[in-house]
Input
Amino acid sequence: MAAEIRLFPCLTDNFGYLIHDPATQATASIDAPEAAPVITALEHEGWTLTDILVTHHHGDHVGGIPELKQKYNCRVVAPHDKTAKIPLVDARVKDGDVVKVGTLLARVLETPGHTLDHISYVFDDEKALFAADTLFSIGCGRVFEGTYPMMWESLLKLRALPDDFRLYCGHEYTAANVKFALGVEPDNTALKARADEVARLRAAGQPTVPTRLADEKKANVFLRADDPSVAAAVRLKGRSASEVFGELRERKNKS
Ligand code: ZN
Ligand code: FE
Output
């Protein structure tokens, strides 16, 4: 039986995600922005929370943990970096570890840059990537704790995943990301197609995720910092991909 994935809005612009294993009834929440919408989604499906898979320590990803832990006594899985303050952690994971959610397997990728502790969860059999605040649709997270080369390496790790994987990211930022990206690459055909799709989805009140990794690789300028045309677009022809990436990120910060 195939895993079931549900997404729903949390806080202002976060996504909440549940992944459910029909074989064992195990259900994981990817991060816990706040408890109430997670509980509502669980009750709607008749599921019980068994695990919370935490990506990083920011409040909008861990704020719901205490209430959910109290209600379900679920396991809290978090990055191994203990300097980051994450409440009620039961298990620490690092790059290459595999987390079991019932019979479902989540591979841990360390993807630092946004924060130093940031990890992403890859469900290979489900072809699902939960990238939180490392990779957004048509964007990427702000680099708060790491460096631009570090964040670029993290994005390369995610870009190396197969084209038919789906990206489930931490925030609904796609419309703003599209606006910025079109300023850099006004003639990118894949980006223009995505812009139309995003406008249609937002007008209908629909989320813009998940997206196919194949489409992100073509349309997301932050995944294309090693493309000479992107370097030229930001007037850094011949410079390294991480420098081009850093320039893109700084421009986006100011946009
Ligand atoms: Zn964050
Ligand atoms: Fe966030």
